[in-house]
Write a structure and sequence with these properties.
The protein is built from seven helices and nine strands, in the order βαβββαβαβαβααββα. It has 239 residues and is an alpha/beta fold. It is 30% helix and 17% strand. The site of S-adenosyl-L-homocysteine has 18 residues, from strand 5.
């Protein structure tokens, strides 16, 4: 008996979905609605929903924060309010839950790539002094920082995370974004780029790039990437 070949049918990849919890949903999509990310959003290559934490606020004033236990300045987002907001968006959802936080693990391309390969992300934006510590463990939030400085709120940080992920989604940027030569992908910063004109204000394009010798160009780029990385980010050089 001959086996019949059944055609391989690939299940359509579900759309990468970002859900943002914020006190300022009107900030979204903001910059994410423009250019590559925005066009991909309009095409339906990814989706974005922003949820107002205040919808779960308490009392007539829909209060979301309170004074810090132990005293001190500022206000803290309440665990019960934030948990209710999270549960409404993603109870039983397989997506990773991120909390934007200067205390978090610094965002790096490897984490971005893993997030982009997954189903999406739920992203909680802090405000004020931050969030009640108990909700972090209680809802399994992964604290992520975008750098060693303090923003007034997590929204710009959430946009950074989403932008970095979306450009890696299939079809959003084509080959460019997945190329192994980009900064961080090979553990090195990228080599310098040039385009026309050949001479600008007396500065010339390096001769090798005009030589048509692909091997020499590749070697030069590799050496430049290493030189720049050694000078600027020796921490990235392995071995
Ligand atoms: N008191 C906090 C800072 C609060 S800033 C501290 O000293 O750590 C208010 C909110 O902005 C934070 O809850 C967080 O969501 C966001 N935020 C600020 N800086 C950030 C950074 N570097 N990366 C990611 N999120 C940040």
């Amino acid at each position: 008996m001959t086996a019949t070949m059944s055609p391989v049918i690939e299940a359509p990849r579900p759309v990468w979905r970002a859900s943002v919890l914020t006190l300022f949903p009107e900030m979204f999509p903001g910059p994410l609605g423009i250019s590559l990310a925005g066009e991909a959003l309009k095409r339906g290559d990814w989706s974005l929903d922003a949820h107002d934490i205040r919808d779960h606020g308490l009392g007539r004033h829909r209060s979301v924060d309170d004074t810090p236990a132990g005293g001190g300045p500022g206000m803290v987002l309440r665990a019960d309010v934030l948990a209710a907001a999270i549960d409404a968006v993603c109870a039983g959802d397989a997506r990773p839950r991120l909390l934007m936080s200067p205390r978090g693990r610094p965002l790096a391309q490897a984490r971005v790539r893993a997030l982009a390969e997954g189903p999406g992300a739920v992203i909680v934006c802090g405000r004020f002094e931050g969030v009640d510590e108990r909700v972090i463990a209680g809802r399994g939030l992964e604290e992520v920082s975008i750098g060693d400085y303090v923003l007034s709120g997590g929204e710009p940080a959430a946009m950074v995370v989403i932008d970095a992920c979306v450009r890696l989604l299939p079809g959003v940027m084509g080959h460019d974004a997945s190329g192994a030569e980009e900064s961080f992908e090979s553990g090195l910063l990228e080599y310098p780029h040039y385009t026309r004109p050949r001479v600008w204000e007396g500065r010339e394009i390096p001769e090798v790039l005009l030589s048509g010798n692909h091997g020499a160009v590749a070697r030069w780029r590799r050496e430049e990437a290493e030189r720049i990385t050694r000078a600027r980010r020796p921490d990235l050089m392995r071995g």
